């Protein structure tokens, strides 16, 4: 057995790390192990195109030819079950043992489960995999009713896709508003208004007290007494990381997440981790726990730099996006900024919201204004201070402001 790099988890971070290893000069063996039967694919389309236009949805991260050209060995449909950090080996569920010089854990996360809803059987879903999307799509027929539990990004994207498909949608969330965890109030309000204009009904400030199934129907009793009926139910209430493998290998974890430094090094030599499974704590103590497409890609590159002893570029301002009801909404920086200003008219896209902390720009959200995201990120990176009337004047190009400030 020739040692090389073994990557556990053939998703966004794992596949991109494999490609980055070659790009950045690693010549030795690379083995990419994934427990899903599919070649590595992207998850963002699962709540969007995969439901709306499944035949046209582009999911694959790379073609089989690209993996072959880069001499990346794929071991799919098999789970890594143990790591021996002393012997530098990974054992797979089929009994195979892989030897590594460097190991990357890119194992992602799983939807947090609600046993009360899982007990509803095949009419209740969480959404993480291609199979989940296919099951939801099969039940999402015109005129049916869907209940969505969770008004976060996935819940709202599903509300958008399912109403596009002609379903009546109810959304339940114990929080007081949409996207409480990762969007400022004015954007949460804008998205709620947008969905309500499409007849989506929100039930905020109340959880699920009881769930029942009768034939193909599900019914929920909410804590506030409301009764909801649906033909299908999807819940998206956050994710958790399965830390069994990491813990058994002696890696430091916190609330399930694998703790890494800025080079994505874990607490064990030669073992790295990246993506949704990771809590990153920088040398200056800054903590980053980000579940996004961009973060998976950035940490994949950081881990590769760490493995190859190459210097690391600074992490950019964190960014993610969502697509809902014809709006492309992009988020950068701190969504918990204490003050928010609007550039443009609320509810009339395109517009941009800026988050300020003590006068410094620390966050931004663009709505159908993707071209403004780059200068917005520059302003955030510099914690720029711009006269508020100027910042809010859509007549003055943001590019100019970013250059001038
Ligand atoms: C429906 C949906 C929509 C999304 N939309 C957006 C969006 O619009 N914008 C955005 O920024 N982000 C979005 N995301 C988030 C983004 O897709 C994730 O942050 C990203 O996929 C994380 O990459 P990862 O490599 O850490 O994990 P994953 O892509 O989940 O890959 C991890 C892989 O490891 C496998 N694995 C786990 N344990 C083992 C093991 N022991 N052995 C072998 N394999 C194992 C898993 O099965 C999985 O295939 C979305 C996610 C979902 C689910």
Keywords summarizing the entry:
binds flavin-adenine dinucleotide, single chain, 405 residues, FAD/NAD(P)-binding domain, alpha/beta, 5-stranded parallel beta sheet, Enolase-like, domain 1
Would you identify the regions where 5 or more consecutive residues have pLDDT less than 50? none
Q: Which ligands does the model contain, each kind named once?
A: flavin-adenine dinucleotide
Rg, Cα atoms, Å:
22 Å
End-to-end gap? 57 Å
Task: State the fourth-level CATH superfamily of the largest domain.
Answer: FAD/NAD(P)-binding domain
CATH classification class of the largest domain: Alpha Beta
Extended strand count: 26
CATH architectural label of the largest domain: 3-Layer(bba) Sandwich
* Overall 3D shape: globular
CATH level 3 topology of the largest domain: FAD/NAD(P)-binding domain
Q: How many domain units?
A: 3
Mean pLDDT: 96
Helix content: 10-25%
Helix count from the secondary structure assignment: 12
Characterise the protein shown here.
This protein has 3 domains: 4-109 and 241-308, FAD/NAD(P)-binding domain, CATH 3.50.50; 113-235, FAD/NAD(P)-binding domain (3-Layer(bba) Sandwich); 326-404, Enolase-like, domain 1, CATH 3.30.390. It contains 12 helices and 26 strands. With 405 residues, it is α/β, with parallel strands linked by helices. Strand 9, helix 6 (153-164) and strand 10 (168-173) form a beta-alpha-beta unit. The protein has helices spanning 12-23, 49-52, 64-69, 115-118, 130-139, 153-164, 185-196, 244-248, 293-308, 373-381, 388-391, 398-404, and strands spanning 4-8, 30-34, 72-76, 80-84, 89-92, 97-105, 110-111, 124-125, 145-149, 168-173, 201-204, 208-214, 217-222, 227-230, 232-235, 239-240, 253-254, 257-260, 271-273, 278-281, 287-288, 319-324, 327-333, 339-345, 348-357, 360-367. The mean pLDDT is 96. Strands 1, 2, 3, 4, 5, 6 and 19 form a 7-stranded mixed β-sheet that branches. The chain has a 5-stranded parallel β-sheet with strand order 8-15-9-10-11, with helices on one face. It binds flavin-adenine dinucleotide (FAD). Flavin-adenine dinucleotide binds at residues 8-14, 33-36, 43-44, 46-47, 79-80, 106-108, 127-128, 154, 245, 275-277, 291-294, 296, 320-322.
């Amino acid at each position: 057995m020739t040692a090389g790099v073994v990557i556990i988890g053939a998703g966004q971070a794992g596949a991109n790390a494999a490609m980055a290893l070659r790009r950045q000069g690693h010549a030795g063996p690379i083995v990419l192990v994934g427990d899903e039967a599919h070649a590595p694919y992207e998850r963002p389309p699962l709540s969007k195109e995969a439901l709306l236009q499944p035949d046209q949805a582009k999911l694959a991260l790379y073609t089989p030819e690209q993996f072959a050209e880069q001499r990346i060995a794929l071991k799919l449909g098999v789970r890594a079950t143990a790591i021996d950090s002393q012997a530098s080996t990974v054992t797979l569920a089929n009994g195979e043992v892989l030897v590594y010089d460097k190991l990357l854990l890119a194992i992602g996360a799983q939807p947090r489960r609600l046993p009360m809803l899982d007990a509803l059987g095949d009419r209740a879903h969480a959404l993480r995999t291609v199979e989940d999307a296919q099951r939801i799509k099969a039940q999402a027929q015109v005129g049916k009713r869907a209940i969505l539990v969770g008004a976060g990004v996935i819940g709202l994207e599903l509300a958008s896709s399912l109403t596009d498909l002609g379903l009546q949608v109810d959304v339940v969330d114990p929080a007081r508003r949409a996207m409480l965890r990762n969007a400022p109030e004015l954007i949460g309000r804008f998205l709620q208004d947008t969905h309500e204009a499409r007849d989506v009904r929100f039930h905020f400030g109340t959880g699920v007290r009881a769930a029942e199934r009768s034939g193909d129907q599900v019914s929920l009793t909410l804590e506030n007494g409301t009764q909801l009926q649906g033909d299908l139910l999807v819940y998206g209430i956050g994710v958790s990381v399965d830390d069994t493998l990491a813990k058994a290998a002696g890696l430091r974890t916190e609330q399930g997440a694998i703790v890494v430094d800025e080079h994505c090094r874990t607490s064990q030599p030669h073992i790295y981790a990246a993506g949704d499974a990771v809590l990153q704590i920088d040398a200056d103590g800054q903590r980053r726990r980000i579940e996004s497409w961009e973060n998976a890609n950035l940490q994949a590159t950081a881990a590769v730099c760490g493995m190859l002893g190459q210097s690391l570029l600074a992490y950019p301002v964190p960014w993610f996006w969502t697509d809902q009801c014809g709006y492309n909404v992009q988020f950068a920086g701190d969504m918990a900024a204490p003050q928010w200003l609007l550039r443009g008219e609320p509810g009339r896209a395109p517009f941009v919201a800026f988050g300020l902390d003590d006068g410094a720009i620390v966050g931004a959200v663009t709505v159908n204004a993707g071209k403004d995201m780059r200068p917005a990120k520059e302003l955030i990176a510099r914690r720029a201070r711009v006269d508020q009337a100027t910042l809010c004047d859509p007549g003055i190009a943001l590019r100019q402001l970013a250059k001038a400030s």
